[in-house]
Design brief:
The protein is mainly beta. The chain is 10% helix and 49% strand. It has helices at residues 4-15, 55-58; strands spanning 19-21, 26-27, 38-39, 46-54, 63-71, 76-89, 95-100, 103-108, 116-120, 125-126, 131-138, 144-154.
Amino acid sequence: MITNKDLEKLNEFHRTQPALTHVGERKDNANVGVRLGDLIREGHSSASVIGTWDFDVDGGAVDVYSLGVKLPKGALVKGVYTNTVSAVTSAGTPEIDVLAGATVLASIADATALSGVESQTVTLVKLSDEEYLNFEIKTAAATAGKVEVIVEYLAP
């Protein structure tokens, strides 16, 4: 869930950036603000990466697994989604962290409860370096499962 503190950070970011309308006219952010149809900031576009953790390929020990895709330096992460291709099973309750390098983007308290496509609570973060998308299994090993992880971000 995005908290009020997260929204304050986002609003502060927008207040410090010049806004352009869809026809390229400058707006005075202090007096006009952002309106429907305005570009928030010229030069940024939405992008996403998809990585897959697969027990049959990667195993399921308590460990950090690289999903083989990178997020670019300067990316502003705005969404994390999971698509459970096959259910995660375990003798315990495995917790999952979705990471950019070592930075937590989202935490999942019980991976065995994942099903279908789900939006995860995201920690808003701007990456200072290019980072691999990682999948960390914590607290209990997984015994089966396959999960696609989709990270949506504003490209630098």
